[in-house]
């Protein structure tokens, strides 16, 4: 069973045809549902920590150190 959002590209005819031709079952996924992708939450948490207090990093090395 495959889950996808209701983005326009997911609902395109070619996408629907591919899924049907390959017998891929889709789970119901309501439009405008909550973002349940945990990596998005991790990225948000990390960005808030790295850039707290308006910190601006000037080099890749500085970013690595902050992370």
Automatic annotation (TrEMBL):
Protein species of origin: Lates calcarifer
Pfam family, any one: DDE_3
InterPro entries attached to this UniProt entry: RNaseH_sf, Tc1-like_DDE_dom
Limits of the Tc1-like transposase DDE domain: 6-61
Gene Ontology molecular functions: nucleic acid binding
Domain of life of the native organism: Eukaryota
Native organism taxonomy: Eukaryota, Metazoa, Chordata, Craniata, Vertebrata
Protein's recorded name: Tc1-like transposase DDE domain-containing protein
């Amino acid at each position: 069973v495959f889950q996808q959002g209701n983005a326009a590209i997911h609902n395109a005819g070619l996408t629907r045809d591919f899924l049907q031709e390959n017998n891929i079952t889709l789970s119901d996924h309501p439009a405008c549902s909550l973002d349940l992708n945990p990596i998005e939450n991790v990225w948000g948490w990390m960005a808030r920590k790295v850039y707290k207090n308006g910190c601006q990093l000037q080099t890749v090395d500085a970013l690595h150190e902050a992370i």
